[in-house]
Design brief:
Alpha-Beta Plaits; 3 domains; 6-stranded parallel sheet; 44% helix; elongated; Adenylyl/Guanylyl_Cyclase_3/4; transmembrane; adenylate cyclase activity; transmembrane helix; CHASE2
């Protein structure tokens, strides 16, 4: 290339890369589906990275679980008396726990008021207790501050030694919990989240020590400042939880084992004698330092919903084909992220844009460079172009994974989208500079006919006529039974996907038999044979196509039935006769189609299937062209509106020859 051409290519490359970066950045940022895909790539990164080695033993957090064992072995039925939690607090204090946090609802009094009083005394004695608060979202205080203990649906909040923490966990578009909210606000009141309340106690801080630090430069997202700690923001209101692993990564201890001291009798002990899993001098929890200086979070670990105990939430990690994790462990992961200072740093929007721009530029340059190699045959050029793009994306994926393993979050969807758009831009560039006329014909007729027919039209553009011409042809109309009823029973997205699958299969059949796709009208398909390339056996091809379409639809129904989708049934009408065919339209907008009485009769035959309970009806004109090749059943005669002479019609049933023999006849 000379300097002028190189300069032109450079300008186009930069322009396409810039536009691709803008489009992909905005699209990925504001279309929820793509945002959801980006979030799922985070899940993939977590699962690829795997669990933190030996985390349960090294972590400063222990989960005391209300599990099946606790429910089975406790002498009282659920809900337990509050005296259980008082004993739990005191035993954990004896064992050296630094903080105890209850992810439990205490929104109504105990049946025995003395049990509530006992729990309050235990909270006051132990101190450093975090209690779960709920329902602050969307509250309107109307200038009047409501006391926290009344507002947070926890009757013990306000007790000396207790600290409220909001336990609501944020879910993303797909329901997965990945982010954590540090503070909740209601009117003029600000409450720490459950995890933040634990952290404030751990570091000896108050809510007033939590600050919002804006970004200092374009490559930064800003921070939440807690004392001397700076937590990188994922967005304006959350940080990204650095999950240590799938469900069960933290150390879980059954709550009943912490209660079981010499003063507490489990059901087993009432039968078999004392075991005392808590204070037994040989193996008791009191002596093995499992709680020493630890943060203890108390919560549900019941696998199935049992009233207020149901607390399973989706997480990024998958274990045994499930990504569910107990809410108490999600809080534990959020706290551990800060304690371990394993912050996942998300790059800023500006930095993301630069990355998208660079990848888009590389994508465009690779595509143009491969095409300039002039590889033959020509299809290999596109293959190598796509392979170069795949290689670029694979390289970026490798960078993304390595970065995430080092707690650095890079975008995936927007760079890939930008690269794909830039690659498409390279195709457009080639179209505008090298293949204007041929590409124009392919663009117009690529939707109507098989690629082999398009190639003939590219070689013979004189076959394309604007004004149209009259010739004998065969037209096929198809429609779906009761599709309106089906479409009203399902969401629009589902119907569109189902139709696309149906249209894709049927269109392939039309193309297989040399047909031209006229149009889709709602759920109907219109196709014709005999133009733009004329076939003498156009009627034979249309009938074969109709039978094959019904056969392919039956295959789709078998699969759809297994998938629980509605089963579609199709009616087809076929007629042969003189029609006008051509590109009909105005400046810049054309439709290659057929018109005439013979076309109208084909549409009428499709509709009349309903009256006779048939699937495929052909006219006598089509029958005369194909008799001897197909098995048919004569139905009778109909009179078409506007005509006086009746038309004999037949039901098309099957082929009399094998399809291979019919293909030879067509050849």
């Amino acid at each position: 290339m000379d300097k002028k051409v190189k300069y032109e290519v450079l300008k186009i490359s930069l322009l396409v890369a810039f536009l691709s970066a803008i489009i992909s950045f905005i699209t990925a940022e504001y279309i929820s589906t793509l945002k959801g895909v980006e979030l799922r790539t985070i899940d993939l990164r977590f699962n690829y990275r795997g669990s933190v080695f030996n985390f349960a033993d090294s972590s400063d957090i222990v989960i005391v679980a209300i599990d099946e064992s606790s429910l089975d072995r406790a002498p009282h039925r659920w809900p337990w008396p509050r005296s259980y939690y008082a004993k739990l607090l005191r035993n954990l204090k004896k064992a050296g726990a630094k903080i105890v946090a209850f992810d439990i609802n205490f929104d109504s009094p105990d049946r025995n008021p003395e049990n509530d009083a006992e729990f309050r005394r235990a909270v006051e004695e132990v101190g450093n207790v975090v209690l779960a608060g709920r329902e602050v979202k969307g509250a309107a205080l109307k200038g009047k501050i409501i006391e926290a203990k009344n507002f947070l649906r926890n009757i013990f909040i306000g007790t000396m030694g207790s600290h409220p923490g909001i336990v609501e966990v944020l879910r993303d578009y797909d329901g997965v919990c990945r982010r954590y909210v540090p503070v909740f606000s209601a009117g003029d009141t600000v409450f720490p989240s459950f995890g933040l309340a634990i952290l404030l106690l751990y570091y000896g801080l108050t809510i007033d020590s939590v600050y919002d630090l804006p970004p200092r430069h374009p490559f930064e997202n800003g921070f939440f400042k807690i004392g001397n700690l700076k937590i990188p923001k994922f967005d304006d209101k959350t940080w990204l939880i650095n999950f240590a692993g799938p469900a069960g990564t933290f150390k879980y201890i059954s709550l009943i084992d912490v209660l079981d001291d010499e003063d507490f009798k489990t059901k087993d002990e009432l039968i078999y004698g004392d075991i005392n899993t808590f204070d037994n001098p040989e193996f008791g929890l009191l002596h093995d330092k499992v709680f020493k200086d630890k943060i203890v979070i108390v919560g549900s670990a019941i696998p199935e919903f049992k009233g207020e105990l149901g607390d399973l939430l989706p997480s990024p990690f998958v274990k045994d084909e499930s990504n569910l994790m107990y809410g108490v462990e999600i809080h534990a992961n959020a706290v551990a992220t800060i304690l371990e200072q394993k912050f996942i740093v998300k790059i800023s929007g500006f930095a993301s844009f630069l990355i998208i721009f660079v990848i888009s530029l590389l994508s465009f340059a690779l595509a143009v460079g491969v095409r300039h190699l002039k590889i033959r045959p020509e299809f290999l050029t596109e293959i190598f172009g796509v392979l170069s793009l795949v290689l670029l994306f694979a390289l970026w994926s490798f960078v993304v994974i390595i970065s995430f393993n080092n707690n650095f979050l890079l975008p995936v969807v927007s760079p890939v989208l930008g690269g794909a758009i830039a690659y498409i831009g390279s195709i457009v560039y080639q179209y505008l500079t090298e293949r204007k006329q041929k590409k124009l014909i392919k663009t117009i007729f690529g939707y109507y006919v098989h690629p082999s027919v398009v190639n003939q039209l590219v070689s013979n553009p004189e076959l394309v006529r604007l004004g149209g011409e009259k010739r004998e042809m065969t037209v096929l109309f198809s429609d779906l039974w009761n599709f309106t009823t089906i479409s009203e029973a399902y969401p629009p997205e589902f119907i569109f996907n189902l139709l696309n699958e149906y249209f894709d299969s049927m269109t392939k059949v039309v193309f297989k038999y040399g047909g031209t796709l006229d149009k889709y009208i709602g759920d109907a398909i219109v196709a014709f044979w005999g133009a733009p390339i004329y076939y003498e056996d156009h009627a034979l091809r249309a009938c074969l196509c109709a039978l094959k379409m019904q056969f392919e639809l039956e295959k789709l129904r078998i699969r759809w039935e297994k998938e629980g989708k509605p089963l579609l049934h199709m009616r087809i009408g076929i007629n042969t006769g003189e029609m006008i065919v051509g590109n009909i339209g105005g400046y810049g907008r054309f439709n290659y189609t057929v018109i005439g009485d013979s076309v109208n009769l084909g549409a009428r035959l499709e509709a009349i299937n309903k009256e006779f309970g048939t699937s495929i009806i052909i006219s006598e004109y089509t029958y005369e062209k194909v008799k001897g090749f197909f098995k048919v059943r004569e139905i009778g005669e109909i009179t078409v509106k506007g005509k006086t002479k009746p038309v004999k019609i037949y039901e098309l049933l099957d082929v009399l020859l094998s399809e291979k023999k019919l293909v030879k006849v067509m050849e």
